[in-house]
Amino acid sequence: MAAIDLKKIFEIPTELDRRSTDALIKAIKENYTSEFDYIKFIHSVNTLIQMEIDEETAFKSAYTTAKTMGFTKEKFRKSLKEYEVVLSKQRESFAEALKRNRSEKLTGTDAKNESLRKKMAENEAKIEKLKAENELIKEKIAGSSERLKKEREKLETITKNFVSSYEHFEQKLKNDLEKFEKYI
């Protein structure tokens, strides 16, 4: 599959998160088959369009050629659906990883902060010698809260980036199916 650039197949805009799109491209590559399928068909269409053939003619011409290899409308739909399933599994995997990350990074930090607050309250009841320890605990809480805020923002950005990338891929599949249905 070295000759087919999946980034061109899915027309990935530069504003999408590269890490997210790379993960989705990798998943598609891992599930790519050697049979003539959606990827090869769209690659053929794109090649014809690059030769300044209009889109409708490119779709029809690519399909006519693909039919000689046993490619059918049903095989197009089936292979496109398989790539939708691959993307869906990546979305599920991402959601699970995000949930684990939140649990590890956010929930654990919240519990740590609560423990530090209790310790601080106990120390305030002790003698003056413990006041110095309380100042250190206050600094830890402030630093931890800031890290927690940054982690939340980071996870929100990662989620937003992934969703944008995923929606782009999903829309591309839908658009190509609509074009295929329209032209073929």
How much is the radius of gyration in Å?
26 Å
Main β-sheet description: none
Straight-line N-to-C gap: 25 Å
Order of helices and strands: HHHHHH
Share of residues in strands = under 5%
Mean pLDDT score: 87
The residue fraction in helices comes out at over 70%
Regions with pLDDT < 50 over 5+ consecutive residues? none
Shape from CA axes?
A: rod-shaped
The structural class is mainly alpha
Count of β-strands:
0
**Number of helical elements:** 6
Briefly summarize what is shown.
The chain has 184 residues and is mainly alpha-helical.
Describe the protein in words:
The protein is mainly α and 184 residues long. It contains 6 helices and no strands. The chain is 80% helix and 0% strand. The longest helix is centred in the last third of the chain and has 53 residues. The protein is rod-shaped, with a radius of gyration of 26 Å.
Structural features:
80% helix; 184 residues; mainly alpha; rod-shaped
Topology:
Layout: H1 6-9, H2 18-30, H3 38-50, H4 55-67, H5 73-124, H6 131-183
Helix pairs in contact: 2-5, 2-6, 3-4, 5-6
